[in-house]
Amino acid sequence: MDAKLEKEQSVKFASAPAADKPVIGVPCSLMDMPSGRMKVHGAAERYIEVLAKLYGCMPIQIPAIVDCINYDDLAARLDGLMLTGGRAIVEPYHFGGTPFPPDEPIDPGRDAVVIGMIRACVAAEVPIFGSCRGIQEMNVALGGSLHYRVHMMDGKLDHRMPRGENIPREEIFKLRHGIEMEEGSSFAEMAGATEVMVNSLHGQAVDRLASDLEVTAISTDGIIEGVRLKNDTTFTVGVQWHAEVDPHGHQLSGRLYEEFVAAATKRSGSR
Question: Which of 28, 57, 121, 132 is the catalytic position?
Fold first, then answer.
């Protein structure tokens, strides 16, 4: 992302009154600190900064604690829901899949909170934007299932992030494969093309599509890369790539953020 442009956007929104900023819920993952002595509820810095600094929103982190959240009440207080990526993946019992091996990272608190929040936000017509793990959570919450290990499927690329030590950020998030969109679709119009390149850092992927979702983008090897709620009255969209990485340098990612924030701002102004 252009540093000058990012700074200009940050200055533009810095003086905006808090009351004018749409409130975006960002569900947390429960993560181990490097010391191993404690866990923290958190979301990756980039998701928070893009919402706050580039698009003038007020991100509010939602802890991965099931017992303290009334989903319908919280949805009514939000103008949007941002679903982030995460190291742990959605547990298969949520969609009737084969149990994970014991060494697979899991985050049951996040699973439960996010699934509950997605359902509540869809019912309340709160805008939702899911990225990476987020598209998978949306599909599961609405009744779909997931592929566990895409790289082990015949004819599929390895969609996981690069393995190894000290890999530069630029290498991790570089554009890796193409996605295809139907001509005349909302995604194609936002992208200005029917095929674009995207980054790729995921092991799971959408398998059986939830009946309330429709496909908006597919990778060149046949993986679902974009979905949208059927008959969407607001903005309920998930993508498999990390749109937060470079929303000003990647046209489709930037337009998706703009549409999401516009929908959240509209909801904020109507309440």
Answer: 132
* Ordered structural domains, the chain, with CATH: 3-148+205-270 (3.40.50.880)
Is 132 in the active site? yes
Coil, helix or strand for 194? coil
| pLDDT digit string (tens) for the chain, length 271 residues | 455 445 555 545 545 566 789 999 999 999 887 777 888 999 999 999 999 999 999 999 999 999 889 999 999 999 999 999 988 889 999 999 999 899 888 999 999 999 999 999 999 999 999 999 999 999 999 999 998 887 777 887 877 777 777 888 888 888 989 999 999 999 999 999 999 999 988 878 899 999 999 999 999 999 999 999 999 999 999 999 999 999 999 999 999 999 999 999 999 988 7
> 29 and 63 in contact (C-beta within 8 Å)?
no
Q: 194 is written with which tokens?
A: 């029917």
The dihedrals phi and psi of 265, each to the nearest 5 degrees, come to -65, -40
Among 91, 147, 244, 250, the active-site one is: 244
Whether 183 is catalytic is: no
Catalytic-residue membership of 49: no
Catalytic residue among 147, 159, 202, 242: 242
Beta bridge partners of 229: 213
Give the predicted TM-score (pTM) of the model.
Answer: 0.91
